[in-house]
Amino acid sequence: MKNKLTQVICLVFALIFLFSVFAGGLSLLFGQSAHAQGYTTSAKAMCVMEASSKRVLASKNEDTKLAMASTTKIMTAITAIESGKDLDKVFEISPKAVGISGTSLYLRQGEKFTLRDLLYGLMLISGNDASVAIGEYVGGNVKTFIEMMNKKAKSIGAENSHFDNTHGLDSKTHYTTARDLALITSYAMQNPVFKEIVSTTNTKITNSDGKTRYLKNKNKLLTSLEGCNGVKTGFTDDAGRCLVTSCERDGMDVVCVVLNCGPMFEESAQLIEKAFNEYHLIDLTSIYAFPSKLPVKEGRAEYVSIGTTGKYLYPLKASELKKVKYTCDLPDSLEAPVSKGDEIGEVKIFIDNDLHFTEKIYTMENVRRNSIWEKLKDLVEEW
Question: Which of 53, 126, 131, 199 is the catalytic position?
Fold first, then answer.
């Protein structure tokens, strides 16, 4: 009897062990992709993206729809900045923008500010009242402005996001994903006004009556992380602690999004450091594998210089360089006359067999035809 009981107990423990191993494997495969890549984070969702190429360098649950808290204001700010409204025109604060719950600029009815000043209040200290005032002024009313936000988000490519408000207070249908928020931020950081605002550590704004408010940016990575130039913190009960960070080094811009992450500053800094250590932005057009000149038949010169005019910058690990391949479609020679800027061929860049970039090849100079008539023409011109 004791032997049977011992066997049963051993079997139970064996099943528990196998289940834990299986569950851990599933967690690695489906819930903890960041750990599989070596980018450890406690965030519920995370996305590290190179801004110019939109390449995802590391991720975890990046397409899971989650609350975003005040990182919403990235969308609020870029929508307002690109609305066409005069940023320096003074307007009056309406009663609808006063007394909004959460973090506040403590706006008063009848106060007058410029849109630019309120954008600083929005992004540095996360004023919820400033977000409503901005929405009213830019959209005519907040509802219309939110429609503008959603439309712009879709145009950026943020297909899995929906905005119910301008500030990020919790709502069941107010959500984004880590990938979408990285796309939105990568887009917004291309705007010089947005970039200047979110990179500001301290400033002051003054209303039309001369009352000054002093603003200190809540994003402490601006002063502790090399190259950090933005962008926004956030917190609500549903969203937890959220942070979107932008960092620029040696011409490469990295955007890091962590949603529902307790140590958001510490982990964001670690994720960004790892990205810069592993990836470098490379101009793949600078190492094209095609000739620099082609023979010219019947030309006054024997050869003509050829080349491309575009650049293709892409973040790669050192180990990935060997995966870059080129194909080149070029004639063996050209027939004179040749004009500078003639399109004569095409080069394609593949990374790991995936087509990434196509560029036309052009002639870089003129080559006149070597004929008796051209020689006579030269004599006449010289005479």
Answer: 126
Positive or negative: CA dihedral 171, 172, 174, 176 = positive
**What is the pLDDT at residue 13?**
44
Spell out the domains of the chain, with CATH numbers in brackets.
41-278 (3.40.710.10), 284-382 (2.60.410.10)
The residue from 44, 73, 152, 232 that is catalytic is 73
Nearest to 179 by CA among 259, 252, 281: 259
Torsion from C-alpha of 165, 166, 168, 171, nearest 10 degrees: 0
Query: Active site includes 73?
Result: yes
Confidence (pTM): 0.84
Question: 317 catalytic, yes or no?
Answer: no
User: In the annotation, is 70 catalytic?
Assistant: yes
Q: What percent of the chain stands above pLDDT 70?
A: 87
Choose the catalytic residue: 59, 70, 186, 199.
70
DSSP-derived letter for residue 101 is: S
